[in-house]
């Protein structure tokens, strides 16, 4: 028994919601730093204001994945989460540009990012649920196409409203310009309607059908089963938690006594919290307590080997992306155009050009989305991903040497190639190594390696820019460029010949 091949338009419909998701995500990425700075944030404070969003994703995605694996309603398994997340995200997009103070904007970003994660996380598992393995690369590439297309329009909206419609892109101090406000309003509507299209036009296999597909799959291609001793596994979990806790406490103490930047506490206090949770779960498991909390925390230790290897690739590539999202506006306005006054026409023109730059890299991603699988078939997923990431890293590094708008656009071509690959190839490499019963959960855990580098970037980049680079944001992009090149090289270490990896405890 096998899943049937879906038609092009069926795959189109099941991926269409990503158009709206990325529409909102692009508005968030391209304009949030601008909103924060308009409301009075200093350059060195902007990363910490972003921190709530990735922390929320770190918590939300595995939980949503875990519960969506176990959900079945009249709307199906994943689609209820698409719809709930779309409603909440659309409301947040309407509220964000009307924030009266900096802290209201930061809180709204938190809510908006959590809501986007509720919609976005099940979409990755949706491909694994509905498509046979031979069509999954096409499925993820279709998502990449809609991500790129939605982001092109979403990123460019403030520029379009200013230059085509005539809305003002400047405003009094502490007020968000009308061009940004109306961009967010349109984004909220598009987000909801696009996701609603996927909810209405797509169907899902029932849990019984999915179980039958998995059984047939294992009969044809048996899983690589790793049998682990439960006591040893519990002991390993406790020791991992203990090491995390001690490391976090020691480094936090060093930060305190040396009066280092307070943002560094977030990373290492977070490490203490995770370590304590691991130790608590190990004690619960020793008493044979089994619930959602213990399963979620334990399965993190039993990740498939392919997933562990991809984790490092994801870490450095997303660290680079987050440095770009945080600092491109400040780097372009300050380093390239020579202004730091957010009320000036030059600053706002430069900030609008950043939205065009972001639109370009997303447009390039949409354009090459279906070309990368062709190259991967002729070479390999690993080689293709490596080339794409190196191109992205070189694009970020080149911004330091650029002094005009056209050069900035050219730099984004390399970033766009990397972005297209980041959105598809790692998931194509990973999906074959995941058991279908835990597809949603592990796709959620895979998000850790998107979120953790964002937390690290938000924690240390502000410190590095302030302490070592004289508050010049362009150097954050240089760090990001080298990180992306490193992630490309690490791709060569990933073993993709493991079809399925299941951990079983004695």
Structure description:
By secondary structure, the protein is mainly alpha-helical. The chain folds into three domains: 1-222, MFS general substrate transporter like domains (Growth Hormone, Chain: A, Up-down Bundle); 230-302; 304-498, Growth Hormone, Chain: A. Helices cover 75% and strands 2% of the residues. It has helices at 8-15, 17-38, 46-50, 52-69, 79-95, 102-130, 133-165, 178-201, 207-220, 230-257, 264-286, 292-299, 305-336, 345-368, 372-378, 381-398, 405-422, 425-431, 439-446, 448-468, 474-490; strands spanning 224-228, 501-505. Strands 1-2 form a two-stranded parallel ribbon. Helix 2 crosses helix 13. The longest helix has 33 residues, at 133-165. The chain is globular and about 65 Å long.
Topology overview:
Elements: H1 8-15, H2 17-38, H3 46-50, H4 52-69, H5 79-95, H6 102-130, H7 133-165, H8 178-201, H9 207-220, E1 224-228, H10 230-257, H11 264-286, H12 292-299, H13 305-336, H14 345-368, H15 372-378, H16 381-398, H17 405-422, H18 425-431, H19 439-446, H20 448-468, H21 474-490, E2 501-505
Parallel strand pairs: 1-2
Organism: Antarcticibacterium arcticum
Transmembrane segments: 48-68, 80-96, 102-120, 140-162, 182-200, 238-258, 264-281, 310-333, 353-376, 383-402, 408-429, 441-462, 474-492
Protein name: SLC45 family MFS transporter
Short overview:
It contains 21 helices and two strands. With 506 residues, it is mostly helical.
Q: CATH superfamily assignment of the largest domain? A: MFS general substrate transporter like domains
Whole-number average pLDDT? 85
Strand content: under 5%
Give the N-terminus to C-terminus distance in angstroms: 30 Å
Estimated structural class:
mainly alpha
Largest sheet: 2 strands, parallel
Q: Count the strands?
A: 2
What overall geometry do the principal axes of the alpha carbons give?
A: globular
Secondary-structure element sequence? Answer: HHHHHHHHHEHHHHHHHHHHHHE
The top-level CATH class of the largest domain is Mainly Alpha
> What fraction, in percent, of the residue positions are helical?
over 70%
Any low-confidence stretches, pLDDT <50, length ≥5? none
Radius of gyration from CA coordinates: 22 Å
CATH architecture of the largest domain: Up-down Bundle
Largest beta sheet: strand ordering: 1-2
In the CATH hierarchy, the third-tier topology of the largest domain is known as Growth Hormone, Chain: A
- Structure annotation, total helices: 21
